[in-house]
Amino acid sequence: MTERFRADSLVRSGADDVERAAEAALRPRRLDEFVGQRVVRDQLSLVLQAATARGKAPDHVLLSGPPGLGKTTLAMIIAAELGTSLRVTSGPAIQHAGDLAAVLSSLEEGEVLFLDEIHRLARPAEELLYVAMEDFRVDVMVGKGAGASAIPLALPPFTVVGATTRAGLLPAPLRDRFGFTGHLDFYDTAELEQVLVRSAGLLGVPLDRRAAVEIASRSRGTPRIANRLLRRVRDWAEVRGDGKLDLPAARAALAVYEVDERGLDRLDRAVLSALCTRFGGGPVGLTTLAVAVGEEPETVETVAEPFLVREGLVGRTPRGRVALPAAWEHLGLRPPQPTDTLFA
Question: Which of 41, 224, 251, 269 is labelled catalytic?
Fold first, then answer.
């Protein structure tokens, strides 16, 4: 694994298998341990307590929001609070209705089925899920052609927890079958500081408060990124420092991994630099901008651009991407003075 890849992936909100394994040890197990998302947490607590009091499975739950904010963790917490087991799968993994029917038919009463990236569910499986969520049954097709018949198979009551990063892609019939919908927002620095203090305790490393604030301020409002940066600061402190996670160690480690004071990494700064220095601040098309930084257009659009737009550094216009005043200021550059050439 190259140093460039590590630096580029350090502040990305997605996670691979290795990342998920590292996160598992830091996940809260109960709602009262979950930091942030106060509104969603309170609403969800009410739903679960009411269902437990009635002795029934709670309504299906849909969690939406950007990656890394805790949707998977909340699904695990829901199962733990209900005292039941969790079945985990994802939309891309279910390409046929039969795949979903096999999962549903193996569920036991009260179990929680977690469907990650539910907006990527195949259409035939999606239509099967409608009936399963509403009537707790699946129709199994027997035979082919004119002689085919559907045999209804009753399912025990269960709860679907769907997670999506793109709620707008969910069809209305599927979205309407969820009794509770919660949207997760980005964390502020104070909340991320609490996440880091808790994670440092679980990792068994002393974390200075000023270091926690420094890491939190560069974490893009995302707990997954905050925990990832914490582990890298710990690595630096153990290998190149004195083992203390203090402010100098945090700054030195984040400098090694090219994460600046606003949480921008190499790709983010390359996009800003190309936009400002090569194209005069824009507007410039996405494809042209991607070629200038040596990346695919999809990478620029889905990986770098959302954070840059959210931070007020880049704007999207019908004519292309433009650098906003904050981008010039962050790079230490002076924006070009507007010129009126109409009467020149």
Answer: 224
- Do the beta carbons of residue 93 and residue 79 sit within 8 Å? no
- Secondary element (H or E) of residue 257: none
Whether 92 and 100 have beta carbons less than 8 Å apart is answered as no
> Hey, what are 52's tokens?
């437990």
Catalytic residue among 27, 71, 220, 232: 71
List 72, 159, 164, 222, catalytic entry: 72
- Answer yes or no: 116 catalytic: yes
Q: For residue 165, indicate whether it is catalytic.
A: yes
Output the pTM of the full model.
0.80
Decide if 70 contacts 114 (C-beta within 8 A).
Answer: no
For the cut 60, the answer to whether the pLDDT of residue 17 exceeds it is: no
71 is catalytic: yes
Residue with tokens 């990305």: 12
Contacts of 158 (CB under 8 A, 6+ apart): 57, 104, 107, 108, 109, 110, 111, 112, 113, 136
DSSP 8-state secondary structure symbol assigned to residue 294: T
Judge whether residue 154 has pLDDT over 90. Answer: no
Task: Evaluate whether 56 touches 157 at the Cβ level (below 8 Å).
Answer: yes
164, 165, 181, 222: which one is catalytic? 165
In 3D space, the residue among 185, 244, 256, 251 whose CA is nearest the CA of residue 215 turns out to be: 251
Catalytic residue among 8, 41, 73, 116: 116
According to DSSP, the residues that pair with 274 across neighbouring strands are: none
Mean per-residue pLDDT of the chain: 85
Q: Measure CA 53 to chain center.
A: 32
CA 102 – CA 106 distance, rounded (Å)? 6
